[in-house]
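Predicting holo structure, glutathione bound.
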Amino acid sequence: MIRIHHAPFTRSLRVILLCEELGLPYEIVKHDFMAREHKGAPYLAINPFGRLPAIEDGAVVMFESGAIVQYLLETYGKSRLQPALGSPDRPAFLQWFHFAEATAMGSVSDFIQHSFVKPEAERIPAVVADAARRMQEWLGVLDHHLAGRTWLVGDEFGAADVMMAYSVNNTKFIGQLGDGHPNVSAWLDRVQARPSWARTAAA
Ligand SMILES: N[C@@H](CCC(=O)N[C@@H](CS)C(=O)NCC(=O)O)C(=O)O
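Done. Tokens:
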């Protein structure tokens, strides 16, 4: 059984959503984020960076949400939720899959850290303003990409949608999605209408 180290609202939601979509059995190990359980010795033995998520799958122990999603697809996906290697949709799939963490979350994290996570004395308003500008920039590109599309890549929901759903949901949570990106909002509504999302959000 796959054990998913999880705290509500964290990137572990990507891993849970993927398991739900693939119908994989999993067990949640819940960490109290506010009590900083993820910084205690037992969890540091699993992820020395003390960040969520991580998984244990038999002898496999790993962190990094995108890498975990990719590992689960490779190991249990049976070619579902991703275009085949060499297919014309593969490059766009890889692009949006990695954009979700490598680029999108940079601006989201900077905004959150400097708005309400860091102690007030350490918050830098210019970082918040720059993060908001970067977020608006990528939300605009994403909105253009989603015009006339149901899902990010091809005709079917896939793992790129799983990765980006977490990033985009965060922009909504921090009031940055707004009304200016109707295609992104409609796509997020479609993702969140899936039964897998309700089960993930309840985890
Ligand atoms: N790139 C990593 C980021 C992991 C990460 O920063 N997770 C956050 C929660 S969403 C965390 O655990 N933060 C705790 C900390 O910064 O100490 C991933 O995708 O898994």
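The beta strands are 2-6, 26-30, 54-57, 60-63.
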